[in-house]
Amino acid sequence: MEDPTIYRILGPIYISSILPIEQEQDLFESHKITTIISITDSDIPIKYKSSPYKNIQIKLNDTPQDIIFPYIGEINYSIAETIYVNPDMVKPKLSGNAVLIHCQSGISRSVTFVCAYLMNKFKLSLENALHAIRRNYPNRTFEPNEGFLEQLEIYNDTEYTTDLQLLKNNSPRWRGYRMKYLINQLYDEDNINKDSFSEVSKPEINDNLWFGFQCCKCRTLLANNLVYVPHLPPFDKDDKQLFFYKRGLGNQIAQNKCTHIFTEPLNWMKDKILENDDSLQGRLDCYKCNSKVGNYNWKGGRCSCGKWMIPSIYLYKSKVNQIDSNGKLILQNDPRAI
Ligand SMILES: [Zn+2]
Ligand SMILES: [Zn+2]
To answer: Where is the active site (predicted)?
Structure first.
């Protein structure tokens, strides 16, 4: 049985499960709710499809693979439009209309989008946005799934970017996030998603932010900053990632240097990665000169610093040179050096 309560979050913003909707409660009468944002596959009663109600339905599942960014803009706008005279302004409408955001249980999806709204509108951190939702209801669970939480952090880090192409270009963290779920797409029902393999190219014009990695032997460009997935070495001395087992050698302490450069799956790796369907791992050779430059393992792998990455697609630092957009080598003492 879903929770029947309609929770007042902040001013005229409410969260609930689907239950009050299924019960066809008179939400305008009880809470002055005029906008109902339904984040669920379930059918919404016809009652809410006409005046005084406006219903927006978003069919999004509640798993970490599901991507929230395409919906944030529309939902933020609808909330603001209901409450404020002008969606960009702070002056509330005299009518005092309210908005209900509900999903199935009122725990993850609805909370996620209310967080996104509060973060954007009031420049709150994710933590403070969650606190604003939870503070009056200490016994009720309001908890976006772990994937939605990470996407909200990315939303914050990128100053409220929702455009997927911009995220891909500007947020290494988003690229890392996508990677985690890529394997599902890649091997899902033999339906290989070709878009999952990124092209690597040099910029047409000088670009100070650009860098690339070229094969040491033949100087072929193998990766660049747009496909590079950074990682932070584990730094806490209690972090188990710092100690790992090396075959035959017992427990090893990780080195404080990274030997791996992790990347997204790249176009030139595609044949190699897809040729052996049975194996989720293998070596990566330079596509020009065939010398070994890295490895991939969809189940994950560890950098020399101890950091565990899933999936693990990497070039060995020792097998590539880092270059800038003029083709000049970036040496180890350069602040741009990876
Ligand atoms: Zn590392
Ligand atoms: Zn090569």
So the answer is: 103
* Closest ligand to residue 254's CA: 1
Based on the residue annotation, tell me whether 305 is a catalytic residue of this protein: no
pLDDT of the residue at 247: 41
Query: Considering every ligand atom, which ligand is closest to the CA of 244?
Result: 1
> Which CATH number covers residue 240?
2.170.150
- Residue 222 Cα to ligand 2 midpoint, Å, equals 9
Ligand 2 midpoint to CA 216 (Å): 7
pLDDT tens-digit readout, 100-131: 999 999 999 999 999 999 999 999 999 999 99
Which residues, other chains included, contact 303 with Cβ-Cβ below 8 Å and sequence gap of 6+? 231, 233, 258, 259, 260, 262, 309, 314
Domain of residue 95 covers: 7-162
Q: Specify which residues 10 forms β-bridges with.
A: 13
Residue 271 CA, ligand 2 centroid: distance in Å: 17
Strands, E assignment, the chain: 7-10, 13-16, 33-39, 54-58, 98-102, 211-215, 221-224, 243-246, 250-253, 260-262, 281-285, 292-297, 301-302, 308-309, 312-316, 320-324
CA 59 to each of CA 44, 71, 133, 243: distance values in angstroms, whole numbers, following the listed order: 12, 10, 23, 43
In this prediction, residues 47-74 reach a mean pLDDT of 95
Tally of domains in the chain: 2
CA gap 72, 83 in Å, rounded:
17
Last residue of a domain, one of 115, 142, 162: 162
Contact 228/322 with Cβ under 8 angstroms? no
157 CA to middle of ligand 2, Å? 36
Q: Which of 103, 286, 303, 305 is catalytic?
A: 103
| pTM metric for this prediction | 0.69
